[in-house]
């Protein structure tokens, strides 16, 4: 055990843990969990909420043995603490791929799955959708496996770290594929609001970026990721024009740390993220929020946010819209519904950002808004419980799995009591 002050990547959360444990084997991890009072796992620290904080013991999995095993046709078993970037390289060497990746490949696999983190694409669910089974260290140090088809599985995959320490994941994977990425600028606002479904159906993965400052000019851009071999994406009908050179999501930023654009084909893991694995995309000088509404309410949600431009723009760096397929996981924001996501990268000023976040939540409330668990939100537990049909079932699962509240922390206690 080591004692050290820690913050998250953005610096807006100072962890209160007395100890940081960095076990080098599964047996050391089991002993550390069994001997601790309260335990949370620290991944790559990319959450902007205090979801990973604890007053007692943080455990990092970064020194556990590496694991990568092809266990069958279309399945692999990997160490849970691996980053998506490192996993992607090993998968690609084996001729395999994940179905999708988020904008940052720097985050850990287990953390991404536990929070239903996602990329974009009408047919693409969150990374949690790839999970076939999980090996978990329980509060008493025992090692258990939860598999697809088990009664608790749909509650255990997106569990916010509340059920134990995930050590290994077995994943569904697909054959490796190539992707072409193009950026289009100057998308007319009426095209986005009136033909949003067609915009997002144009390619394997589509993201829309806007600064919410204007409805005209170059304030709306499309990042289009076309899977090589699929029908070619034709965006001419939108009125947007192809970018003349590489772009960064934030127009004032240099594009060198972004993945290859201009339609140059490349491996899936070098195109689906917005940012290159070998670069840190920024110094962490930002806050982030993300909110999900049902896909069929996307136009209403867009129009509601359109009325908040004057509130949003002064504290915003950039906003991204994405589409995500439905999944069956009880605490996933995508539980039983395809979503449209409204992502906000804010300036690093929590006092200025918080009231704007609250206003966005109020504006989206009529459409059953759900937040990303690892980002900044203010929605009260009662509103969240009303939005998740299996909320009470998860609370029971959490109490049955962890009767001594070993994996509880202020974040979870604030949600579930």
TrEMBL record:
Q: Under which name does UniProt file this protein? A: FAD-binding protein
For the keyword Oxidoreductase, the answer is: yes
Does the keyword field hold Oxidoreductase?
A: yes
Q: Which UniProt keywords apply?
A: Oxidoreductase
Give the species this sequence originates from. Answer: Streptomyces pathocidini
Where in the numbering of this chain does the FAD-binding PCMH-type domain appear?
A: 12-176
Q: Which domain of life is it from?
A: Bacteria
